Amino acid sequence: MLITGGNPLMGEVRVSGGKNTAVAVIPATLLCDEPCTIENLPDISDVYALVDILRALGARVDYVPNAFMTVDPRPAEGWQVSYDDSQRLRASYYLLGALLGRRNEAEVYLPGGCAIGARPIDQHLKGFAALGAEVEQLGGRITARADALVGSDVFFDVVTVGGTINVMLAAVKAQGNTTIYNAAKEPHIVDLANFLNSMGAKIKGAGTDVIRIRGQQVLHGTTYAVIPDQIETGTLMIAAAATHGDVVINGCIPTHMDALAAKLLEMGVRVTDSDDAIRVRSNGQHRAVNIKTQVYPGFPTDLQQPMSALLTTAKGTSIIQETIYESRLKHLSEISRMGAQVRIVDRTAIIDGVTDLYGGPITATDLRAGAALVIAGLMAKGVTEIYEPHYIDRGYENIEQKLRSLGAVISREKGE
Ligand code: EPZ
Q: Closest ligand 1 atom, CA of 89?
């Protein structure tokens, strides 16, 4: 990916449907007893991977990108996801909860996904066991089986987005009531609950730390549009600020962006919003700020990387504390090659703002690291070459096209 920096982003752009909600809602169609239609899905590689997985399990999937996906789960007899398919995306682990809920048995390999440190799934497995499943993990293969899933109390030791979603998936068709304590509160958890409830599931409390689920035997077909992508919205907000531009992001949910908007305001960026749009304007020197990543509604770890790229040219010293993942600061070593002044101590980055970054060859190591490098490239003097841009395609639909429509000079060339 080639970016010629220094062009202020100007104009309006529409945000796509949420990746992290899409990758939960698509497996959740397996719980339905009739066909379901999902709208507003982002056209990204993680969605294609899930289409292949559902088809391999026997479901009929009709997918028209940027229009709809209809899943008829009735012919799906499969309950095993291959090693290759499990590795294609992190969210393949949602097939565990969805298949357990559908047919009381599931086999999935430990998932792939971004290399941002250890990402155990012990809490997911503990939740399945609480619902009565026998769970075995051998050679990276996880098998879960139950004669019947029975609702129960599930207490999470850590707040986990994936664990909360997986237990919800398994519990919606279990016999009796399940209560999840210390649940995650991210917007896509609420969206998944709304999707399942639109099929007739009985889920209350999503968006709080206690979720109550009354198991149902049968779920009916539905048509549902997923929420806009919180992290794409945030990345576009940061890109607008980074280029001292003036951008209106349409089709977003401004309240999901409160933590980021507060930090941008603290830096001296102007952020205003209306019902479903946010305008970000910036024309002066940014001030350094400190960031500590936290579970929702705190500052999201998924925006830490793009935000820390922006902070490399803010006046003063910014301190970034990454509390969710052990290894999510690698992008800063790459941006240091462009002239950023960064010290990394354990999970903390100390950034001394510099006046300018300078373009050069750099390499993306994961999805949001890739987004951070795009922000750095947009700010830098000269041309930035980002290698391994395929990571970015996992979570951002048409990123070059969207940024180009705002005035960025960005393109992609095939590698050797
Ligand atoms: C989800 O990952 C997202 N992925 C991530 O987005 C996001 O960074 C993360 O939530 C936090 O918001 C999807 O939705 C597909 P967690 P997930 O379980 O579910 C520990 C992106 O860039 N933990 O909330 O895997 C874990 O190690 C991606 O879009 C356990 O110890 O995150 C981590 O430190 C990257 N045991 C913390 O909890 C468990 O069983 C939070 O992980 C589960 C998690």
A: 15
Query: Which residue type does 394 have?
Result: R
187 ligand 1 Cβ < 6 A: no
What letter would DSSP give residue 17? B
Separation between Cα atoms, residue 220 and residue 33, nearest integer Å: 6
Q: Where are the beta strands (DSSP E) in 282-375?
A: 291-292, 317-321, 341-345, 348-352, 361-363
8 A C-beta contact, residue 33 and residue 101? no
Domains of the chain by residue range: 20-219, 228-381
Q: What percent of the chain lies above the pLDDT cut of 90?
A: 94
What are the phi and psi torsion angles at 414 (to 5°)?
-75, 135
| Distance from Cα 362 to the centre of ligand 1, integer Å | 26
Dihedral of alpha carbons 380, 250, 329, 370, sign? negative
In this prediction, residue 327 carries a pLDDT of 83
pLDDT of res. 114: 61
The CATH number given to 20-219 is 3.65.10.10
45: its two tokens: 């590689």
Q: So what's the pLDDT on residue 126?
A: 97
Pocket flag, ligand 1, residue 121 (CB < 6 Å): yes
Residue type, 195: F
Examine the pLDDT at 415 and tell me if it is beyond 80. no
The residues, any chain, with a CB within 8 Å of residue 190's CB and separated by 6 or more, are 206, 207
- How far is ligand 1, taken at its centre, from the CA of residue 119, in Å? 7
Please tell me if the domain spanning 20-219 has the same topology as the one spanning 228-381: yes
Helix axes 94-103, 122-130, angle to 10 degrees: 10
Omega before 297 within 30 of 0, i.e. cis: yes
Q: What is the number of the ligand 1 atom nearest to the C-alpha of 162?
A: 19
Q: Is the dihedral of CA 26, 24, 202, 151 positive or negative?
A: positive
On whether the 228-381 domain is CATH 3.10.350.10, my answer is: no
Count the neighbouring beta carbons within 10 Å of the beta carbon of residue 350: 14
Residue 116 has pLDDT above 70, yes or no: no
> Would you put residue 295 in left (φ > 0), alpha (ψ -120 to 50) or beta?
beta
Q: Indicate which atom in ligand 1 lies nearest the CA of residue 116.
A: 35
Beta carbons of 410 and 384 less than 8 angstroms apart: no
Distance between Cα 161 and ligand 1 center (Å): 6
Q: Quick one: how far is CA 100 from the chain centroid?
A: 23
| Ligand 1 pocket residue status of 311, Cβ below 6 Å | no
Name beta bridge partners: 381: 358
